[in-house]
From TrEMBL:
<keyword id="KW-0812">Transmembrane</keyword>
<keyword id="KW-1133">Transmembrane helix</keyword>
<keyword id="KW-0472">Membrane</keyword>
<dbReference type="Pfam" id="PF13279">
    <property type="entry name" value="4HBT_2"/>
</dbReference>
<dbReference type="InterPro" id="IPR051490">
    <property type="entry name" value="THEM6_lcsJ_thioesterase"/>
</dbReference>
<comment type="similarity">
    <text>Belongs to the THEM6 family.</text>
</comment>
<feature type="transmembrane region" description="Helical">
    <location>
        <begin position="6"/>
        <end position="27"/>
    </location>
</feature>
<dbReference type="InterPro" id="IPR029069">
    <property type="entry name" value="HotDog_dom_sf"/>
</dbReference>
<protein>
    <recommendedName>
        <fullName>Protein THEM6</fullName>
    </recommendedName>
</protein>
């Protein structure tokens, strides 16, 4: 009984599903996909569900785009081994800046993919481009540029 109460409190206080999905994304990438070069593009797939939509229940909420970009970034780090290399040098990676261009909405129940690629790096940061592409038409729905401080 006390375990269920603690679990309920965790779900109320923290977004437990976010952490579960982070772990799942990293381990699934490592176990079931081949390693990639840091210059390769990585891809993850998603589906716009009822938990992702705006108040009018028509399309993905802008905040969910950023959340999905987190998962795609973690997947990129896992497949390329980039995060391990950063940690070997006693560093870390934090979001320094991001800019998203929303071109068209992702309608509810539409599958999409997020493609992540490294576009530049310097001594203090790496720069990623991430694209949301709907599978039905191949249209790039949103493009995000992010700076990861290392």
């Amino acid at each position: 009984m006390s375990f269920l109460v603690i679990l309920l409190i965790l779900y109320v206080i923290w977004d437990v599903n976010y952490f579960i999905r982070c772990v799942f994304t990293v381990f699934a990438g490592r176990l079931f996909q081949r390693k990639r070069k840091v210059t390769d593009t990585t891809t993850i797939y998603g589906l716009c569900t009822s938990q992702d939509v705006d108040i009018f229940i028509r399309h993905m909420n802008n905040a969910r785009y950023l959340r999905e970009l987190d998962f795609a970034r973690f997947h990129f780090y896992a497949l390329t081994g980039l995060y391990e290399r950063i940690r070997e040098r006693r560093g870390g990676a934090v979001q320094g800046a991001s800019s998203v261009r929303y071109r068209r909405t992702i309608p509810i129940f539409h599958p999409y993919k997020i493609q992540t690629k490294l576009i530049w790096w310097d001594d203090k940061a790496i720069y990623l481009e991430q694209q949301f592409v709907t599978l039905a038409d191949g249209f790039v729905r949103a493009v995000a540029m992010s700076k990861q401080n290392i």
